[in-house]
């Protein structure tokens, strides 16, 4: 007779809601007729809200279950809520988009739910095997979502490129985990940390090599330089709501996992990985922001901008302090709101059959729709870090954390690249305020899209004016 | 006479490392998309060899190495399935699966 | 004796892997990949991980290889004599990969591995099964979910539906005729 392990249900409750809801929805979707698949999307939204409610209810819970492989604490709860918010907003943005582009299928919402479940697991994992499996879940979901607009060639290519680079990255990731396992004898982060001091020189080298490969694997998913090559192509080709979801999903969950691996599992190797991470962050900031400067395609510009933001997000683990963790959570929240608001504006202006999302389509937006322009302005100003948006507080908190951790060069670089970023963000806004250059593109203003856009814009402002309550998570 | 006495661990790990690098080379160099997938499968097999060797030589009483290898086999199969489905879908639209020809998204 | 067997299996693995990467025809590469999978399974048996060896053959040779062969069959290229590798300096990739291999092998050789003194447990497969239900229950369920999502994904991507069908010749002719009719009506 096999006795099942003791499970702490309060910790697992949120995951059960998400995965249970996703499975039930998958079955319910069979009963929903083809023309009314929006019902599936709204039901998925309910599941996400339910999971968020459970998360808030258990906000104070801290502990581990499943033998220490799944852990909950304020940081993980907060990042989990950010992921759920991203999923909810993405579903809102996608509901009518799918129908318009004739790719409406119930599986979209179900896949988003599974994806967000993978994100939650990745954030709550305290063991490398669980991390690997949840990352695989998230990745497969995103590959399929990227190719959702089949048979449109751009979407197909995006999905294939994403899958092949992702599978390649998985190879590095698991090789790294295998090396770490060989050196320390365990895959649980706490046990690895405990075994750390006892390792002799060569074993330590082996474990460090494993860590390096693991970071390479995670770096691919989070679009860190030099593993960022897939990002512009995939964001450009994927359906716009999927690009929005991806821009947040890959960063938030993966960076939280990276933070846990580095700080919890390999805290004492900090002298080794912190400088390397600093170099990677610097390179990512430069490539992302300079790359965005030359883009005429708005989706690619947002892709490069998200690469640049990933560089900033790396400041969190580099700082390796409570301040850094707080800043990371806040930055993720602000980044989610801003990116989703920006993509919402793009969705509002995107008709079926458009190939290139050129900047000219945004010209003259101010005259056609002040509401859209306002949302766009808030989003881009927050990404640039202009007060009083959430982005300003976020960047300030990050720079402060890194300054106190002793990396003045990174602070300078952060400020400089933010200035460069402001240049290309403002350039877009100037085009929007200027005269129209092309025939007016169609504008879609259905209520879920408007609601999502409004919520995101509101979040940008609220977080910018009253950041205190979100700034303490360690 | 068992494996542990007959073959040093470093030989098995070296075999895994070489297989990993062959797979890596295949991913970088192969033109056809299915060819790239072959490279990835080789890389994942190499990691599995590594894990099983660690299990056998270092800690045969803990199944962690075997369990992880089993999960890698699972995920590799899942990703291959989705990847091949995409290749088939691309071929239907485009009649080619040569990576260089997919130039719609460049730059 | 065991050493000889190991060297034989290892050579088979490396030789087939190289042939996978080098073969010009994709079918040959696929068959060499199957050979590699078999050889790796044999290695697992030599390492006394019988369950994993059987799983390797069942999953990789039995399922993944069949998938690959089906995919190749359904995507037959008409030009058969194109180069197998991408254009460009492949020797740089080769040099890089050899460099990586050298680094890895040196690191492997340098570590003073503490081999175990324990005897191999007698009932390995039951031990594996029990572990999957106890310590590894979460990853086990998670793997099941991943497979479900992969299944959904593959169906969503590859399933052919009427509105996604590529237009047939009849559809094209009808479309052209319709456009020609409209053009005639439109011009005064």
Describe this structure in a few short sentences.
By secondary structure, chain A is mainly α. Chain A has helices at residues 9-31, 38-57, 74-100, 107-124, 128-146, 153-184, 189-195, 201-221, 230-237, 240-265, 270-293, 298-313, 315-319, 322-348, 365-368, 370-384, 390-405, 408-433, 447-465, and strands spanning 63-65, 70-72.
Strand-helix topology:
The complex is a heterotrimer of chains A (474), B (107) and C (188).
Chain A: H1 9-31, H2 38-57, E1 63-65, E2 70-72, H3 74-100, H4 107-124, H5 128-146, H6 153-184, H7 189-195, H8 201-221, H9 230-237, H10 240-265, H11 270-293, H12 298-313, H13 315-319, H14 322-348, H15 365-368, H16 370-384, H17 390-405, H18 408-433, H19 447-465
Antiparallel strand pairs in A: 1-2
Chain B: H1 3-6, H2 9-29, H3 33-58, H4 64-94
Helix pairs in contact in B: 2-3, 3-4
Chain C: H1 2-22, H2 26-46, H3 50-74, H4 90-110, H5 124-133, H6 137-158, H7 169-186
Helix pairs in contact in C: 1-2, 2-3
* Rg on CA atoms of chain C, Å: 26 Å
The percent of residues in helical segments of chain B reads: over 70%
What's the average pLDDT of chain B? 85
CATH T-level fold name of the largest domain in chain C: Four Helix Bundle (Hemerythrin (Met), subunit A)
Number of folding domains of chain C?
2
Determine the mean pLDDT of chain C: 83
Number of strands of chain B: 0
Question: Rounded to an integer, what's the Rg of chain B over CA atoms?
Answer: 18 Å
| N to C succession of SSEs of chain B | HHHH
Task: Give me the secondary-structure category of chain B.
Answer: mainly alpha
Give the biggest sheet of chain C. none
Number of domains of chain B: 1
Q: Which CATH class of chain B applies here?
A: Mainly Alpha
Report the uncertain regions of chain C: none
Total beta-strand segments of chain C? 0
Order of helices and strands of chain C: HHHHHHH
User: What is the helix fraction of residues of chain C, given as a range?
Assistant: over 70%
* Tally of DSSP helical segments of chain C: 7
Q: What is the structural class of chain C? A: mainly alpha
């Amino acid at each position: 007779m096999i006795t099942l392990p003791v499970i702490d249900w309060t910790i697992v409750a949120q995951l059960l809601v998400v995965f249970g809801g996703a499975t039930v929805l998958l079955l319910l979707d069979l009963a929903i007729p083809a023309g009314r698949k929006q019902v599936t999307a709204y039901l998925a939204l309910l599941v996400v809200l339910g999971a968020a409610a459970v998360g808030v209810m258990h906000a104070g819970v801290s502990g581990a279950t499943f033998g220490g492989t799944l852990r909950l604490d304020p940081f993980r709860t907060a990042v989990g809520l950010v992921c759920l918010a991203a999923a909810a907003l993405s579903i809102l943005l996608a509901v009518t988009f799918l129908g318009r582009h004739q790719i409406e299928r119930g599986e979209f919402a179900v896949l988003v739910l599974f994806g967000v479940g993978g994100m939650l697991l990745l954030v709550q994992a305290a063991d490398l095997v669980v991390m690997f499996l949840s990352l695989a879940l998230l990745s497969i979901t995103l590959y399929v979502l990227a190719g959702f607009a089949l048979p449109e060639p751009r979407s197909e290519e995006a999905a294939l490129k994403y899958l092949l680079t992702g599978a390649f990255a998985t190879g590095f990731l698991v090789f790294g985990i295998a090396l770490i396992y060989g050196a320390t004898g365990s895959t649980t982060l706490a046990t690895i940390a405990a075994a750390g001091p006892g390792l002799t020189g060569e074993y330590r080298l082996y474990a460090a090599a494993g860590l390096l490969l693991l970071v390479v694997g995670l770096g691919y998913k989070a679009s860190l330089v030099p593993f960022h090559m897939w990002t512009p192509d995939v964001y450009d080709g994927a359906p716009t709501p999927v690009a929005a979801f991806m821009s947040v999903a890959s960063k938030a969950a993966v960076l939280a996992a990276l933070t846990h691996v580095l700080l919890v599992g390999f805290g004492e190797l900090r002298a080794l990985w912190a400088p390397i991470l600093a170099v990677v962050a610097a390179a990512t900031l430069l490539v992302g922001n300079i790359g965005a400067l030359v883009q005429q395609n708005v989706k690619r510009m947002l892709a490069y901008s998200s690469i640049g933001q990933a560089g900033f997000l790396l400041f969190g683990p580099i700082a390796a302090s409570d301040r850094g963790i707080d800043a990371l959570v806040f930055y993720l929240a602000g980044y989610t709101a801003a990116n989703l608001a920006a993509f919402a504006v793009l969705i509002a202006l995107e008709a079926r059959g458009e190939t290139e999302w050129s900047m000219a389509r945004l010209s003259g937006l101010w005259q056609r729709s002040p509401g859209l322009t306002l949302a766009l302005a808030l989003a881009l100003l927050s990404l640039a870090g202009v007060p009083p948006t959430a982005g300003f507080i976020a960047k300030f908190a990050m720079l402060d954390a890194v300054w106190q951790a002793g990396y003045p060069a990174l602070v300078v670089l952060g400020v400089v690249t933010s200035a460069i970023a402001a240049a290309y963000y403002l350039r877009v806004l100037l085009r929007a305020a200027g005269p129209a250059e092309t025939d007016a593109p169609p504008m879609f203003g259905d209520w879920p899209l408007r609601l999502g856009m409004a919520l995101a814009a509101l979040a940008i402002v609220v977080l910018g004016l009253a950041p205190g309550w979100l700034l303490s998570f360690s | 006479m068992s494996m542990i006495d007959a073959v040093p661990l470093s030989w098995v790990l070296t075999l895994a490392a070489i297989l990993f690098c062959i797979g890596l080379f295949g991913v970088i160099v192969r033109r056809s998309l299915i060819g790239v997938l072959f490279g990835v499968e080789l890389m994942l097999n190499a990691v599995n060899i590594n894990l099983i060797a660690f299990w056998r030589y270092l800690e045969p009483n803990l199944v962690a190495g075997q369990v992880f290898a089993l999960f890698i086999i699972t995920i590799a199969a899942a990703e291959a399935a989705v990847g091949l489905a995409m290749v088939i879908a691309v071929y239907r639209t485009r009649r080619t699966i040569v990576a260089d020809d997919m130039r719609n998204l460049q730059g | 004796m065991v050493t000889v067997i190991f060297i034989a299996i290892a050579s088979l693995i490396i030789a087939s892997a190289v042939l996978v990467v080098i073969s010009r025809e994709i079918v040959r590469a696929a068959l060499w990949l199957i050979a590699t999978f078999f050889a790796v399974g044999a290695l697992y048996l030599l390492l006394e991980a019988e369950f994993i060896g059987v799983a390797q053959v069942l999953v990789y040779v039995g399922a993944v290889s069949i998938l690959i062969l089906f995919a190749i069959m359904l995507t037959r290229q008409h030009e058969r004599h194109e180069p197998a590798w991408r254009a460009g300096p492949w020797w740089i990739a080769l040099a890089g990969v050899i460099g990586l291999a050298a680094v890895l092998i040196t690191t492997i050789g340098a570590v003073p591995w503490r081999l175990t003194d324990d005897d191999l447990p007698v009932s390995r497969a039951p031990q594996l099964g029990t572990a999957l239900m106890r310590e590894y229950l979460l990853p086990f369920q998670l793997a099941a979910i991943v497979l479900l999502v992969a299944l959904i994904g593959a169906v969503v991507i590859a399933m052919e539906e009427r509105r996604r069908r590529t237009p047939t010749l009849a559809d094209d002719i009808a479309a052209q005729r319709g456009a020609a009719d409209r053009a005639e009506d439109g011009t005064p």
